[in-house]
Design brief:
This protein is α/β, with parallel strands linked by helices. It has one domain. It is 39% helix and 17% strand. The chain is built from ten helices and eight strands. It has helices spanning 7-10, 21-36, 52-57, 85-97, 103-115, 133-139, 143-157, 182-189, 197-203, 223-234, and strands at residues 63-64, 77-82, 123-128, 162-164, 168-170, 193-195, 210-219, 238-247. The strands form two sheets. A six-stranded mixed β-sheet has the order 1-2-8-7-3-4, sandwiched between helices. Strands 5-6 form a two-stranded antiparallel sheet. Helix 5 crosses helix 7 (143-157). The longest helix has 16 residues, at 21-36. Bound molecules: zinc ion. Residues 40, 42-43, 45, 51, 53-54 line the site of zinc ion.
Length: 259
């Protein structure tokens, strides 16, 4: 069977059962499920990792998403989605299940968070928050970096002068954030990131200044983003915003202001 997205190509030969296009699509997704064991992370429909219906429902724009309380000095954080439902399933699917096919749609969400209402002009450099090296080794990939790379590619296609630089690394001794409250997270993270000097040199900011955007998958308390911002600003770099795929629901403010 030919697995094609071209309706004409996937239409069965006359006399093969008379499927129409929609049924053929269902058969195709069913076949993909059998081949790949896949199902939509949003609605569990067999087939693609993200079905067209769930994909269409994803937000196309981003909003400011201040955490409560706001870490002192945090630049404006922007999120494309609320961390629930399909967006949450996508983040976890990539991070915990290694569903690399989700990096593209997650990249679209992050691209919206980076570019929404960002004043035009000049070079923009996306800085993914660093993951623990042990976690990256165990997963075999770095989801935050992968999504950031996809976002940059999309934004370049849209005409933005944007690159990605992994300028930060974690010091040893930082424990997993899960299960920690806001104060514990802040204490765990304070001073936890440092600049990768070689990466900073390679980025060539003296020759080509840039506005930096700290990128992460999820914003919860904001302490991770704040620490990344701190580490970059110590070197005199210009951090203009934090961009995330999704922010935890109670921290989204419809008015776009802290509180
Ligand atoms: Zn779906």
């Amino acid at each position: 069977m030919r697995l094609s997205t071209d309706p004409a190509g996937s239409r069965p030969a006359p006399g093969a059962g008379g499927f129409d296009g929609a049924v053929t699509g269902t058969v195709r997704d069913g076949a993909l499920d059998l081949l790949l064991g896949g199902a939509c992370v949003g609605c569990a429909r067999p087939g693609r990792l993200l079905c067209p219906g769930c994909r269409d429902e994803l937000p196309a724009a981003a909003t400011p998403a201040w955490p409560t309380p706001v870490p002192a000095g945090l630049v404006e954080p922007w999120a494309a989605a609320v961390y629930e439902g399909t967006a949450r399933a996508m983040v976890l699917g990539l991070k915990e299940r290694g569903l690399l096919g989700l990096a593209g749609p997650l990249g679209s969400l992050l691209a919206a968070a980076v570019s929404c209402e960002l004043p035009r002009g000049g070079r923009v450099v996306l800085v993914p928050v660093p993951s623990r090296p042990r976690t990256v080794r165990a997963r075999g990939h770095d989801p935050t970096r992968a999504v950031t790379l996809r976002a940059a590619r999309l934004l370049r296609r849209g005409g933005l002068d944007v690159g990605v630089a992994s300028l930060l690394r974690l010091r040893a001794g930082v424990v997993d954030q899960a299960g920690l409250d806001a104060a514990q997270r802040a204490a765990n993270l304070r001073g936890s990131m440092r600049l990768r000097a070689l990466a900073v040199r390679r980025a060539g900011f003296e020759r080509r200044p840039a506005r930096l955007v700290v990128c992460d998958d999820v914003l919860t308390t904001g302490s991770t983003a704040r620490e990344a911002q701190r580490a970059l600003e110590v070197a005199g770099l210009d951090v203009v915003r934090v961009a995330v795929v999704a922010a935890t629901p109670r921290r989204i403010s419809p008015a776009g202001h802290p509180g």
